[in-house]
Amino acid sequence: MIRALSTASSGMKSQQIYIDNISNNLANVNTPGFKKTRVEFQDLLYERLGAGGARLTNKANPSFNQIGHGVRLSATTKIFSQGISKITENALDMMIDGDGFFQVLLPDGTYAYTRDGTMKMDSEGNMVTTSGFPVEPSLAIPREATEMMVAGDGGVSVLIQGEDEPSQLGRMELVRFQNPAGLRSVGHNLYKPTATSGDPLVGNPGEEGIGYIEEGFLEMSNVDVITEMVGMITAQRAYEINSKAVKTSEEMLQIAAGLKR
């Protein structure tokens, strides 16, 4: 009975983690560049109660008597599938079509990476993220510029007031990782590299496996609401069943404790 209590409680804890993850995915369903997280579980150690099956002469037993001890969280994995595109017609909004991340400079001098292409301009004309972190390599839009254009290969040009032809301002670079699922989320739609993700590989859009830049679009979340709702219902039912197992085990213990000789 004691084994059933601990096993069922581990199931309840795991389903609570599952619900927590689903809640975070659904909360960010409209967050630009957000990537959903998948939780993965694995069973715990098994206790061998003894050899099972009929013992045959000079032959091994066909099965074993084993009882498991529940479940635990094994990993949380970011799914970097392409999110749906949203037309904004804003020149500062950019979407990466394919693999890659925008590189931003943090106040502590380190770099972080994002799929969120909601760019802004600060008071000096520098291109920054919504949180105010400058994009690398740095790009400063002149005050006299009346229009900005970003090509698919990352080339940035501006149309200066009084001129007929656009002037080349610079080029945006993107970064890719060998294993993006190994990146660590740090909030603000940002990721930091880890030993699992590998080192950042900087390149031009459209080259070396890096995606293209689409101006006037935003990549939205890749969360599928229907899939998350189905998972929520499944987790709720599993939680209820595990709680019923705890209650049943407790009732059986009470019966055993009330036995008289």
Provide a descriptive summary of the structure in words.
With 261 residues, the protein is α+β, with helices and mostly antiparallel strands. The protein folds into two domains: 2-79 and 223-257, no CATH class; 85-219, no CATH class. Helix content is 23%, strand content 33%. The protein has two helices and 20 strands. It has helices spanning 2-27, 225-257, and strands at 37-43, 46-52, 63-68, 71-78, 85-87, 94-97, 101-105, 111-114, 120-121, 127-128, 135-136, 145-150, 155-160, 167-171, 174-176, 184-187, 190-192, 201-203, 212-215, 217-219. The strands form eight sheets. Strands 7, 8, 11, 15 and 18 form a five-stranded antiparallel β-sheet that branches. Helix 1 (2-27) runs antiparallel to helix 2. It is elongated, with a radius of gyration of 27 Å. The mean pLDDT is 89.
* Ends apart, CA distance between termini: 20 Å
Structural class assignment: alpha+beta
Question: Which shape, going by the Cα principal axes?
Answer: elongated
User: How many structural domains are formed by the residues?
Assistant: 2
- Could you report the average pLDDT, rounded to the nearest whole number? 89
Low-pLDDT runs of 5+ residues are: none
Biggest sheet statistics: 5 strands, antiparallel
Count of DSSP strands: 20
What is the string of SSEs from the N terminus onward?
HEEEEEEEEEEEEEEEEEEEEH
Q: β content, as a range? A: 25-35%
Tell me roughly what share of residues is in helical segments: 10-25%
